[in-house]
Every structure is written in structure tokens, then in C-alpha cells.
Amino acid sequence: MKRLVVVTLLLLGSFLAIPFSTHPAHASPGTGLVCLTRATSNNCPQVPLTFNATGVGKTFTIGVFINNSDAMGGFDIYVSVDTTYLNPVSAALGTLIASPSLTSICVNGISQTGACTANSANGPGVVEVTTAEGSGGNECGGSSPCSGMAFTITYHVVTDTSSAALSYPTNPGCSASSVASPPNVCVEVADAQGTILPETTLAADFTDQTPTANFGATPTSGNAPLAVSFDATLSNATAGHTIAFYNWTFGDGVKMNVTTATASHIYNAAGTYSPTLLTQDSSGATSSAPPKDGITITVVMPDFSINGNTTSLSILPGKNKNVTIILTSSNGFSGPITLSANSSVILGITSTLNKTSVNLGAGQTDTSAKVTVATSVLTSPGTYHVNVTGVSGILKHSLFITVAVVQMQYSLSNSGPITAIRGRSGSNTIIATLSTGTGQPVTLSCVSSSLPPAASCSFNPTTITPTSPTGSSSILTITTTTSTPGGSSTIIVTGTPQPTANTTFALAVADFQITGNPQSVSIPQGGNGNSIIILTGQSGFNSHINLTATSGSGNIIGFLNRTNVSVTVAGGSNSSTLYIIALTGTEHGSYSILVTGSVGPLTHSLTITVDVPVPDFGASATPTSVSVQTGTNGTSAITLIGLNGFTGTINLQAKNPTGVSIASVFSSTSVTITSGPVASTLTVSTTTNTPPGTYTVTVNATTLSLYHLVNITLIVISPLPSVQLGSATLSTVSVTAGKTVDMTVTISNTGTIPVNITITMDVNSGSGANVTVAQTTVTLNPGVSAQTIKISWNTTQWAGGTYHVYARIIGSQTTAVNQATSAGTVALSSPPSAPPPADLSVIPWITTGLAAAIAVVLGLLLFRRRRPTGLPESA
Description:
This protein is mainly beta. It folds into seven domains: 3-206, Sandwich (Immunoglobulin-like); 216-300, Sandwich (Immunoglobulin-like), CATH 2.60.40; 303-405, Immunoglobulins (Immunoglobulin-like, Sandwich), CATH 2.60.40.10; 408-509, Immunoglobulin-like; 518-612, Immunoglobulin-like, CATH 2.60.40; 616-717, Sandwich (Immunoglobulin-like), CATH 2.60.40; 723-829, Immunoglobulin-like (Sandwich). Helices cover 4% and strands 53% of the residues. It has two helices and 66 strands. The strands form 15 sheets. Strands 34, 36, 38, 40, 41, 43, 45 and 47 form an eight-stranded mixed sheet that branches. It is flat and about 145 Å long. The termini are far apart.
């Protein structure tokens, strides 16, 4: 189905501000009709049409019409036929949707416009047409009801047939259907907001072997005499012929055979009639039998009813009373009604109407007429009848009033409600008080239908005479049996003969309930237990309850601490304690004790179940997990306790892990339980060869017939080295900044495995955190004498001051981590001051002197080189 596509378009229209009709989408909510009719029709037929054509190979067109629906914004409708006889060839939109959009037309599963809906009823013989109003609004201006031709279908006649159904297919893909039943009918009509509108359907039929007899009737209901016009112009003859006769049967015994397509008939009597039509064409062929779901004509007769505000009077001699006459129009009755009432002066009863005619309007009720019924002082007590009759034309109805002439008027009252325990009785007082007249004997009785089952009532005395002003009384006793159900009832007491008087009161049949807490008790041999027996009152119960306890076995003793328990209305419930003893030697199993509560004949019982369990013992370990180093041992206490009266000797055995060096020893391999718990200590030992890991040691605790297992987790870990930080000394306690300070530390490994540690030299100026100034990492081997480690602090860049120096070791997998000790203090002094700066002003003179000296030396050397050879040196 394409409902979502339609909804999407309509919502887009609202988002784009497409103007909508101001009429509400559901102005007149209801159910419309989707029908198959002639392509030129402007409404739906009253009954399914039968279509025909002029012969094989011809075509005809039908219309799919939506009639009196809520205003719609689109539809998706399928029509199917058997392709053996008919083949759909095309479909076209009708005028219902003013501005169609997103239209799809699918014929025989092939798209003619748009796309066929997948996973639906589409296929051979099926036509699907879907479209939506492009404006985003609803049709018919948004007003309901809305009608119009949705689309038309043209069919090709394949072969002759007496009947081929044109219907609406069903398919799981049509779950969003406008048709409530059956489900999945492929008819969907929706409004502009996507709300699916409710619809019914009217299908059709096709034949080309006989004439068709299609007709309508107007009106189909009304008051008698009802004139109905019949129109059979929708009927068709077989191919090449015309209809010669229209044979009408109107359903009221009247028939008519005419040559015209129209007829009229008057229904004079009220009733429901089913007219039928058979047509005969010029070939002599006659239409098939009329359909079972044909037109129904309903004729009603205008009428009125006459009633009174009461139909029973009780009057003293010489008195009178009034009855209001109620006249009601039905089926559109209107007109004058003549009233009359019978009287008997001889009998001393007269009836007088305040009016003898009432003009009643259609659909109205009139209460203006009254009849006064009077007696004389001589009228004999007894029962009389007054008949008030209303007549209008052929209509006549009567009101019968029963009049009891009595010598007195009295009332009955009672002293209040009764509470009676089941099987017992309860009483109250019935009082008869005279109002007027002379008191006459009155016989009292209980209305049997008001009594609860298996209950009875009695009066003492049964007959009393009403008096005034205090009245006369009788004691009423309600007797119940143990079969009378508990609960409340309303009892009605009546005084007879005429006039009758009634009084009512509440009867509570009280009961009690017995329960146990707990209802099942477990007690070991030689032990005891108890159950609280709770007694709860119901329906006003207020009495003492006797209790007994009976055991079904001599080895089970049960006794109650209270055998008489009072349960009151105020308290609601009470209890007694049932003590239970299971004698020593009682076989294990299930036993019972019957507790019975009784009040007179009323009893309730409760069975308390006593379970004597098999004697047993429990075993546990403390702790359940033991951690040891290789080569050492650990212990766990195995505790055993008797359960359900167990006594005896228990043997203990430990199952060690296989393949490793683990041994287990009990302090005692057998223990005896006599009363409280006993224990044996399990010692689990390892060797230096036991691999580290997690193991399970299972302890078996056994007797000749019982055994229990306790698992102990053994965690074996490698031994840790033991590092000892010895003395720490400083190479100096006073030094100039920039110098080195050495710290000598002694360290030893007293464990059994080597370990890597880091030794740090930390300093602190007296404030703030320690600062590590040097560190080194070494390996300490076990069994070696203390090692001496020296590390140095370069004090360059450190300011003068006094510093505390500490030695610290850091290591993992050691028994002593982050040990530290003080090495002492160092007084760090500032370095000596730098010499004053040189006088650079003499540098130019020095430079000049040096230059002159160099020039003299170079000149002498040059002079010597230029002397003539052989000249003597000067002296």
C-alpha cells in the first residue's frame, strides 16, 4: 500500500504552507461505503449490482465509487476478477480527487501510470489505483460526508459465464486497511493527515448468459401506509435482446408483472419485507435467483403507549389516591387520544379522570392526565382493578391498576443487623406499627430468595397485630447450618395479607479461618520445633474457638499452649503455639499433625507437616586459602558440626596435588561429634623444590554412609630477598660549594636469592622535599658479607647552607622496600671572591713599548746581515 507516500506528500504540503481547508478533517465521523457501480452513477446501489455486456469479445466499464465517507485526501484501492471470464484492460481516475498527484495505475500487475505496489495483491485480474490530493487538503472542501467517483475500470469479456465475481482482494501487504473485517482487505482511504478512514464495501457480479435484475427502492423505511417506488433501469438483457417483463414480488404477498422498469407499491402493515425482481428478456431468458442480501423495506406503524406512575394502590375505606397517566408517542405517532376509566359504584370503587382527551405530538410524552381512584366507607376490603383506556383511531391501549382496599396502613421495622456463626443462629425484633385504620392480624415471613443457602428463619409469634404508637413485636431467628456460606446478605421480611409491608436488615454469617506459620516444620531426631496457629475471624466473628492437635505418629508429639482461643471483632485474630517433638530414633521422613478448631458444629482443620531429615554433618575450613613460601608450611582448621541430630566418628583424609612436593598432616585423622562442633588442624608443607603456583588440597570427611569434601586453596610463592640498609657516612661535614661530597653506605642481603636495588643520595635544606643528587644500582647476592657502596654529590651550582644528607634504597620483590637512614649534615660554604679587575689604561703604553723593542731587535738583525764578509767584529 502507498499510504506513506500519500502522507509524505500531504505533510510536505503543510510544511510548504499550502493552504488547507478550514473545515475539520472529521466533521461527521462515521463509516463510508466503497462500491462497484455503473461508470455514470453518482451514488452507490442499494444492493450488489450484476453487470453484463453484449457478448464475448465486447468491453464494458464499471465505476469504483466512494459514498458518504469522511472527507479524504487520497486512496489506494484494488479490484480483482477471474481472468477466465473477464480481463481488465485499463483504468482511469474519476472526479473524486480534484488535483491528483503521485498517481499509480496498475493493471494485471503491469504499470500503466507510476509503479505497481510490491508485495501486494497485484497480479492477473487485479487493478490497483492510488492517488493523493496534490493541494495537501481534503476533498469536498474538507466537509463530511464526501462522495465521488474514485476511478473507472474497463473489462474485456473473455468467455461466457453465468457468474463472475468482481471483488476487493485481501493480502498481508494490505494490513493498513479501511475495512475492519475481514482483515487485510486492499481498500485504503485516508485523510490529508494520513489517518485511515473507516469504510465498508459493496462488490458486484458479472454474467452474459442471463438478463440481470438490478433495482433500487425509495424509501426503504417509514410509517404505514408506506408508498415505495422501485426502479430497475440498471437491469440488462442478454446480448442482442431487450427486457420484456419485470416480475416483482414485494414481500407482503403482492406480486406484479409489468413491461416497464419502474413500479410502485404501498405497504399497509407494519413489518420487514424483502422485495425481489426477476427479469425476462425477448429471448425468453430469465435472470438468476434474487440475491440473499437484497433490499429490505421496513414499515412501522405509528403508535402510542399508556402507562402509570404506579400500577398498585393501597386505599383505606372512604379514601382516594391519584395515578398519573403517561402517554408516549412511538414511530412518529401524533394526534388526539381519548381516555376513559371504568368505575363500579356498586362495588364502591370509582375512578375519575381530570381530562378525557390528550393531543399527543410526534415523539412526545404527556403526563397531564390523572385518574383519581376513590373508595367509600362501605367499600369492602379486598383487591379491585381499574382499567384506564386510551383510543386513537384503530389504536387502543389500556392501563390496568390494582387497588387494594385495606382496613389499616402499617409499617414494619427491625431492631438491627444479625450476626450468626455458621451452624448457629441469631435473632432480632420485628416491629409492626399502625399508621391509620384499625389494626388487623399480620402474618410475618422471610422472602426466601433473600436468605443465604441452607439458612432458615422463624418468628415468635408468627402473627402480630400492628398497634400505635409503640407497635407490636415478634422475635425473628435466623438459623444457619455449616453448609451456609459465610458473608453478608440483605434479609427481607414481609407482612401479609393486604396491605403488605416490608423491612430489611443485614445478616452476617460469621466464620473463622485457621492457618499455620510455618505450615511445614523441619525437626531433627530428638529435636523440637513449633508452629504458630493463627485464628482469624470473618464477617463479624466473635467467639471462643476450641483447639485440638492430633499427631499421625507416636514418635511425633504435638501439643498446644492454648486450647481455647478467643477471637473478637475488635482483635480480628488470635493465636496458639503448637509445640512439636521428634523423639530420638524417629525414622527420617514426613509426618503430619492435624490441628482442628471448632465452635459448636462449625470446624476447620489445618495439617502441619513435620519433616524429620536424615542426620548429617557439615564440614568447613578456616581459612579456605593458605599462602606459604616455598620450603615453609601453613595451617587450616577443619571444623565439623553435626546436623539433624548427627553423632558419631568422622574420618579425615587429605588429597594433595600430584607431581609436586606438597604434604598434608592432620592433628587428628578422626573426630567424634557428640554435641557441638569439633575441629582438626591440617598442616600443609612445601619444600624448596615446590614450584610457585596455586594448588588445591581436598579434604575428605567420611563416615560409613556420609561424606563431604572441603577444598583448600594453597598458594605457594617464591621467597623474597631481605635487604638490610646499614650505616651511611659522609666524606666531610664542611665543604666549599663546587667540591664533591662522598657518601659511603653498607648494605647486606640476608635472604636466599639475589636482588637488584638502587641506592640514592638525597639532600634537604630544611624546607621542602628531598632532592636526589646521586644514585647507583647494584646487585646484592645472598650469603655475602655487607657491601660498601660509595656515591658522590657534586655541589657545583648549590648555594651555601646546611644540608641534611640521607641514604635510601629502592627495590622491588624485597621484604624491606624504600629503607632510608641519615648520613649526617654538610655545611656548604660559598666559593672565594673573584680578584679585582685589571687597569687597562696602561695597555696602550705597554703595546707601544713592545712594538719599539721589537723594532730595535729587527734592526740589529738586519744590520748584521748587511755587514761585508771578513770585516772584523767590533770589540
